[in-house]
Specification:
Layout: H1 12-16, H2 29-32, E1 44-52, E2 59-68, E3 73-84, E4 87-101, E5 104-117, E6 121-135, E7 140-147, E8 165-175, E9 178-187, E10 193-203, E11 206-213, E12 218-227, E13 230-238, E14 245-253
Antiparallel strand pairs: 1-2, 1-14, 2-3, 3-4, 4-5, 5-6, 6-7, 7-8, 8-9, 9-10, 10-11, 11-12, 12-13, 13-14
């Protein structure tokens, strides 16, 4: 399993941008890049459901809460769960983001994962991710995430480390509500992944998104709707094999 597992696509904004996540600041920053917590203008709670490959039982659920503290800092807590018959994977995540200066922030995410296998019982693992975000100017933003840099063991009786990895992304606001996104990530034992996305603030309350991931030649489409303190996002990814991915998320901010 990769170090990102079910967190590889967290939130439908990310899904609509082909999985670009390291530069996003939204209701799932605690999962995607904890450094983004420091850029939040409001506290929020969000829920997401995602179906993979059209399999009825293969759903991924996320629940995320993020709270702004005094100063340029924030904390977050997230729960996630997925599974099929005979197997279940659950996550509990806590994150913290802090601005070290006006345009630069760092973050840390601690994650506890439980695997339940019908024939083997429960296995637990813990790992930490580190993140950074830099607002170069009012148009360009950079994001960096190190996955599991400390090589924490999953369970003592197995001499296994979880793969480490890194993800680097950039976003550029081109004007007229148009945002361009790109990200490259590399995890041990896996080839590099390249993702690109476009987000267009089409109308006052509506965003349109599309993206492409070269890893599995997948294309994504998404739409976001914002009304007062509520936000809803819907996304779909088409890939030749093993099939499509679709989902929705809903968030409330204050």
């Amino acid at each position: 399993m990769s170090s990102q597992t079910i967190y590889s696509l967290s939130g439908m904004r990310s899904l609509g941008l082909a999985g670009v996540s390291s530069v996003l600041v939204d209701g799932f920053s605690v999962i995607n890049n904890s450094a983004g917590l420091a850029y939040l203008s409001q506290s929020s709670v969000a829920v997401s459901v995602q179906n993979r490959f059209g399999i009825n039982d293969l759903n991924i659920f996320h629940l995320s809460g993020q709270y702004r503290l005094r100063g340029d800092q924030a904390i977050g807590l997230a729960l996630a769960s997925t599974g099929i018959e005979g197997f279940r994977e659950n996550h509990v995540t806590a994150g913290y983001g802090l601005k070290l200066m006006n345009a630069f922030s760092i973050g840390v995410k601690l994650n506890l994962t439980n695997y339940h296998l019908a024939e083997r019982g429960n296995l637990f693992r813990a790992h930490a991710d580190l993140g950074a975000m830099y607002q170069v100017n009012n148009r360009l933003k950079l994001g960096l995430v190190f996955f599991n840099p400390f090589q924490i063991l999953r369970i003592r009786e197995y001499d296994e480390y979880f793969p480490t990895g890194v993800s680097f992304g950039a976003s550029y606001m081109a004007g007229n509500g148009l945002g361009l996104f790109g990200e490259v990530s590399k995890t041990e034992l896996l080839p590099a992944q390249f993702k690109t996305g476009i987000e267009w603030h089409w109308m006052e309350r509506i965003w349109l998104r599309t993206g492409y991931s070269h890893t599995n030649s997948s294309y994504s489409l998404g739409v976001g709707i914002h009304w007062n303190n509520f936000t809803a996002n819907f996304s779909f990814v088409h890939m030749a094999l093993p099939g499509g991915v679709s989902g929705a998320d809903f968030a409330y901010s204050w």
